[in-house]
Structure formats: C-alpha cells, structure tokens
Design goal:
115 residues, Hypothetical Protein Aq_1857, Chain: A, globular, ATAP_core_dom, HesB-like_dom_sf
Length: 115
C-alpha cells in the first residue's frame, strides 16, 4: 500500500511538514484522539492531520509509505482504501481529494495542522 502526493498537493502541504511532525490519515469514524464525533453518513470521510511526533497514535498502527514520508492510519480503515492512492488538490476550490485505483475515495478530504 502506498500514497502519492501530486506535486501541487505536496507543494501546498510542505508548510506543515516541520521537523518532529507526523502525518495521520484519519478515517472519521469517532475513534481515536483526533475524532470528536463520527461522521454519520453513507460516505467515506478522511482527514489528513499533521501532529506532533509524541502524539498518541496507538489507534494508528497501519503505516503507509508516501513520497512525503510515512502516513499513519487505523488498520481497519484499510478496508476503505486501495493499494495505490493519490492525494491531490483542486487549485480552483482549494479542496483536497483522496483517490485510488477504483476511483475517488474522498472528494473533500480535510487537512488539519494539529502540531
């Protein structure tokens, strides 16, 4: 499994990648320290989080390599993912998306700097 950030997305997200920061791809299901409430829709929702390296990531045991470094995720969220995924940004609307070989996974992925 791997994630590729497009050049446009990587350039825009670079400002969050400070030393001592980890990336988390959080499946918004109400589980874990970063999710305040579950997303009660039939859609799949993810947030790309930038957290301090000492953040509690015990719920995030899946490590996905990417061209920007390792991305941590909940192991069971793998069921909602594809083996090869891409994170891109629509420059007109400044909206990030997560897609895979099967198509779009989340067309409006949140990005949060929690570091």
């Amino acid at each position: 499994m791997e994630i590729t950030f497009t050049k446009v997305a990587a350039d825009r997200l670079q400002k969050f990648l400070k030393p001592g920061v980890k990336m988390v791809l959080d499946f918004d299901d109400g589980v874990g320290p970063f999710s305040k409430e579950a997303n009660c829709t039939l859609s799949v929702a993810y947030n790309l989080l930038f957290v301090n390296q000492d953040a509690d990531l015990h719920d995030f045991g899946l490590v996905i390599p990417s061209n920007l470094g390792d991305v941590y995720a909940k192991p069971y969220s793998k069921d909602q993912m594809d083996e090869k995924m891409t994170i891109d940004v629509n420059e007109k609307y400044l909206r990030y998306s997560l897609s895979g070989q099967g198509g779009e996974i989340d067309s409006s992925m949140g990005v949060k700097d929690l570091a």
